[in-house]
Specification:
Strands 1-2 form a two-stranded antiparallel ribbon. The chain has a two-stranded antiparallel sheet with strand order 3-4. The protein has a two-stranded antiparallel sheet with strand order 5-6. The chain starts with 20 loop residues before the first strand and ends with a strand. 9% of the residues lie in helices and 35% in strands. With 100 residues, it is mainly beta. It has two domains: 57 residues, no CATH class; 33 residues, no CATH class.
Length: 100
């Protein structure tokens, strides 16, 4: 069990850091990141998609993207009618569009 701490609450983190965490800043202020998530979070932020929270563990994983005015999100059912492949047809996808 992780030891509770208020040391990092300034960046929405509520326990002591472990070997699986690192403090990072992608230009919007420091935050504690799960090391496994850093490549994804860095790439999203470099593309202009700001993240607010995430958690990566053996059991549960999530991340969030803040929906600014220039971002739209749509949940769609895949239907690749203009492609030879069909292995994704019928599956759900999240389509995220944004303007820089």
């Amino acid at each position: 069990m992780k030891k509770e701490s208020t040391k990092y609450t300034y960046c929405n983190h509520h326990h002591e850091l472990t070997d699986e965490h690192e403090i990072v800043d992608f230009g919007d202020g420091e935050f504690v990141a799960n090391k496994k998530a850093i490549p994804l979070l860095k790439a999203l932020n470099e593309l202009g998609l700001r993240t607010r929270t995430h958690h990566i563990s053996e059991e549960n994983n999530f991340f969030s993207i803040l929906l600014a005015e220039n971002i739209s999100v749509e949940i769609k059912t895949v239907n690749e009618i203009d492609a030879d492949r069909d292995k994704y047809n019928g599956q759900k996808e999240i389509l995220i569009q944004w303007r820089n």
